[in-house]
Design a protein that fits this description.
Distance between the termini: 30 Å
Number of helices: 14
Strand order of the largest sheet: 9-8-7-3-2-1-11-10
Bound molecules: 1-deoxynojirimycin
Shape: globular
Order of helices and strands: EHHEHEHEEEHEHEHEHHEHHEHHHEEEEE
Structural class: alpha/beta
């Protein structure tokens, strides 16, 4: 059977605020994206995933949706979205949009109605409202913490002016959790799926896919909040994550998306953002009648050592093979420190939630060298790969953002203890000598761009042999030519310091160790993440694709 397009697709994440600004207000927008689509064709990706562009007060950069069926004026209009979808399709690019079903914005009409309605009313039952504990109900209903820091409950003032019930928000106060036990909520989201499918989208990236159903008794959890549930299969699961009830929701959605097309080249897809471990547990989201893909965050989190990479790749392939789904690979997105910086921290550093000027700084040169090696390794793996805007330029994290510029609620809710995610969300550089590096027609940029970014600009890298951009382009072209995404991996070497594998006719070697490693006699190098040394050896932190 022909595999579906998504099984081998390279999907490029666009973060609309920071991709391209057409009107010079310092915030990227949909017409800006449309005008830059040719870049993605030149790069050689198959699809784009757009982070949310819906009406939103932007309390969490658009992951607080006030209206699921329209476009935020900052980003454009609904006709702009239609144009973007149409222009992408015309160029052979598929379009995946973000769906945020765990919570709405507090500015959503449903939440406004809930606040003016009585406890127990149908309007409140769309969300998770509860009476507080203690004599006057002044204590939150349980001890859950918000992922962004602080308590996961906020008390409302009732219409009569008295302190009243509490509502649950696993994220910011401005992101009340929906009650997915309520059939009205389920019907609403099926309708939202249809709304965007009717406009021609090819699928949905489903935000917090592991969070929709909470354990019915909302039992205390007594452990710090971690979005990654990180549990062994037989250990108790956190009462807010990865509850078995979520799967029924995705089975229903699968029927909906399949009704719009399920043929290999026509399939509409569902992609789970589910921070669930271990890999076997995550694979439950992509059983044949559920979603099509799930982000592989275990891979993103794996240390840059040969044994760790070998283990996570092997485990990932086994877990997804067991349910007949494609494996996915990802190294960067809008929630984590960019891999060009993350890999420049000492191996073993716990994953930082942002980096600030006061923190130990990554080694930029080492980080970029490893990032390029990591990307080349990733793009040779069978399955589907996700790229995050700017990584094709080798863009680092902005690690010295002034604190007053920070906008991520994480920073504010933890009083700066967590620097947050702004450093990976800075508008990207297109032209070295233009205002805002070509992000928009003016100097305006909603987060300041560091001066060093001129050297990463696209126009400094295009057609420059060996630039990060040209390495990405070459790899994507070869990946397509060799059908690597639908290939099969065969390990050739998994030593302490070297990994080597074959994917169909192509061989891949990554050297993690300190000493250069020879290639087999007569090897024909197709692309390498950095130049080989004069004797054709593979230096430290380099990946090579070759024919032997
Ligand atoms: C995951 C999204 O990727 C992140 O940016 C957002 O803050 C949370 N979900 C809450 O919607």
């Amino acid at each position: 059977m022909t595999p579906g397009w998504w099984t081998e697709a390279v999907i490029y994440q666009i973060y609309p605020r920071s991709f391209a600004d057409s009107d010079g207000d310092g915030i990227g927008d949909l017409p800006g994206i449309t005008a830059r689509l040719d870049h993605l064709v030149e790069l050689g990706v198959d699809a784009v995933w757009l982070s949310p562009f819906y009406p939103s007060p932007q309390a969490d950069a658009g992951y607080d949706v006030a209206d699921y069926r329209d476009v935020e004026p900052l980003f454009g209009t609904l006709p702009d979205a239609d144009r973007l979808i149409g222009e992408a399709k015309r160029r052979g690019l598929r379009v995946i949009v973000d769906l945020v079903p765990n919570h709405t914005s507090s500015a959503h009409v449903w939440f406004a109605e809930a606040l003016t309605a009585a406890p127990g009313s149908p309007q409140r039952q769309r969300y998770v409202f509860r009476d507080g504990l203690g004599a006057d109900g002044g204590e939150p209903p349980n001890d859950w913490q918000s992922v962004f820091g602080g308590p996961a409950w906020t008390r409302v003032t009732e219409p009569d002016g008295r302190p009243g019930q509490w509502y649950l928000h696993l994220f910011d106060t401005a992101q009340p959790d929906l009650n997915w036990d309520n059939p009205e909520v389920r019907a609403e989201f099926v309708d939202v799926l249809r709304f965007w499918l009717d406009r021609g989208v090819d699928g949905f990236r489903v935000d917090v896919a592991h969070g929709l159903i909470k354990q019915a008794d909302l039992a205390d959890w007594q452990e710090p909040q971690e979005i990654l549930s990180g549990r062994e299969v037989d250990k108790p699961r956190p009462p807010m994550w990865d509850q078995d009830g979520v799967h029924e929701i995705y089975r229903e959605w699968r029927r909906v998306v399949d009704s719009y097309g399920s043929a290999p080249q026509d399939g509409r897809v569902l992609v789970a953002e589910a921070w669930v471990e271990p890999a076997e547990r995550l694979a439950r989201y992509i059983r044949p009648d559920e979603m099509h893909q799930a982000f592989n965050f275990e891979y993103l989190l794996a240390a840059w050592t040969a044994p760790a990479q070998y283990a996570v790749i092997t485990r990932s392939l086994e877990a997804t093979d067991a349910v007949g789904a494609p494996t996915t690979w990802v190294l960067s997105n809008h929630d984590v420190v960019r891999h060009a910086s993350r890999l420049g921290l000492p191996i073993g550093t716990p994953r930082p939630n942002g980096i600030g000027a006061q923190d130990p700084q990554p080694d930029a040169g080492l980080g970029l060298r490893r990032a390029r090696a990591a990307t080349l390794l990733m793009l040779a793996l069978p399955g589907s790969a996700y790229l995050y805007q700017g990584e094709e330029l080798g863009l680092p994290e902005h690690t010295t953002l002034p604190d007053e510029a920070r906008q991520d609620p994480t920073y504010h809710r933890t009083r700066g203890a967590q620097r947050g995610r702004d450093g990976c969300r800075v508008p990207i550089p297109w032209e070295a000598d233009a205002p805002s590096y070509g992000f928009g027609p003016t100097d305006a940029s909603w987060l300041p761009q560091p001066p060093s970014w001129s050297e990463y600009a696209l126009d400094r890298q295009r057609d420059v042999p060996g630039s990060t951009y040209e390495v990405y382009r070459a790899a994507l072209r070869l990946r397509r030519e060799h059908g690597l995404g639908r290939g099969a991996l065969r390990w050739l070497e998994s030593a302490d310091e070297v990994l080597a594998f074959a994917n169909d006719g192509l061989r891949v070697l990554t050297n993690f160790g300190p000493a250069p490693v020879p290639l087999p006699e007569g090897a024909e190098v197709l692309v390498s993440s950095a130049p080989l040394d004069g004797t054709g050896h593979v230096p430290t932190d380099v990946t090579v694709w070759f024919r032997a």
